[in-house]
Amino acid sequence: MTVQLDSPGIETAEQAVSTEVELVSADVELAHLFDEIQELDAQILEVIKRRCELSQLIGVAAKATGHSREAQNHEMQVLDRFTELGKDGNTLALTLLRLGRTRLAS
């Protein structure tokens, strides 16, 4: 029995190496993408912490000066800004607002 190397389903050594190189390249790209997401997550976390600090300061100042209604209007604007993300955007906006009212542990 003879087998043809160019038969369907049988890879040549060159094709096998090419496939291996593509897989390694895909793994490297995937690792890079995960690294980038990890960096973005770190940046997002820092921004959220700062946002919470500012929100808490605003809450204290608004109560002290009687501008609570103005602060509520700004909260409604936050909800509006996140509408482009749909239902999840609304959830995210509400979460950010809730976090701003909560003291974060340092």
From TrEMBL:
Which SUPFAM superfamilies does the entry mention? Chorismate mutase II (SSF48600)
Q: Which InterPro entries match?
A: Chorismate_II_sf, Chorismate_mutase_highGC-bac, CM_dom_sf, CM_II_prokaryot
State if Cytoplasm is listed as a keyword. Answer: no
Q: Per its UniProt entry, what is the enzyme's top EC class, as one word?
A: isomerase
Keyword list (alphabetical) reads: Isomerase
Taxonomic source organism: Rhodococcus zopfii
The regions listed as transmembrane in this protein's record are none
The keyword Isomerase belongs to this UniProt entry's keyword annotation: yes
The Enzyme Commission number assigned here is: 5.4.99.5
- Give the GO molecular function terms: chorismate mutase activity
- The name this protein goes by in its record: Chorismate mutase
Q: Which domain of life does the protein's organism represent? A: Bacteria
Q: Where is the Chorismate mutase domain?
A: 35-88
Q: What is the lineage of its organism?
A: Bacteria, Bacillati, Actinomycetota, Actinomycetes, Mycobacteriales
